[in-house]
Amino acid sequence: MRAIQVFNAVALAAAAAFLSCLGVVTLIYAIYLDTEPRLREDWPTVVTVTSVFAVLSLLAGLAFWGQRRELPWRWPAQALLFAGLAAGGLVLVRSLS
Prior knowledge:
This protein is mostly helical and 97 residues long. Helix content is 88%, strand content 0%. It has 3 helices and no strands. The protein has helices at 3-31, 37-69, 74-96. Helix 1 runs antiparallel to helix 2. The longest helix has 33 residues, at 37-69.
């Protein structure tokens, strides 16, 4: 397996793992949103972080699939993944600081 495929697989696994954990957190927040005022304050941040990892999972999945099958759009998908990682990192830093 080429190094780029390993990178894409690791990026996909990490983003999907974070997404699954944050998905459960988002669900719990949604259920108990009206019971605690603090949860209402944190809600936009939780949704933002979950959305970032959802997009990163999608981009990593597309890049992995494209590289694995050697599809014609694999390099644009790879570039989108790198751009998504940079943009996602900036969004996470801004929303969590």
